[in-house]
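Let us practice reading a record.
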Amino acid sequence: LPINFRHEKEFLLKTKFNSWSKLSKLKDDDIYWILKRNPLCTESRLKKIRAISIFICELQIAPPHAYLLLHCGIGSIKALSVIDAHIIEKRISRLERNLNIKTIDSPSIPVLKVWIRKAKNIIKG
């Protein structure tokens, strides 16, 4: 997890939520339980961690790609299932320009289309 999730990471590693699979199954009640136990954790960061872990587990993508989707405004499988690959590519490019960085392994249009297709299949059930 990125450095800004340090409090959540530290706490989660000490609890039963110590794998992507377990984090993807985090329920709101679990998040509130964590918040009561560790006031340095925040609800928004825990929900972001849950979204990242769902992308990793459901789409079988690398953590940096899951972070990238989240930072491009795609916070759920459903949101990914209804967006166009070219829009995601444009958002990634804009993010890179705004942060003045180049992502090492930026996903290509065909890869984005595969992720979108997987998301649509997951939504269909």
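A brief commentary: The chain has a mean pLDDT of 91.
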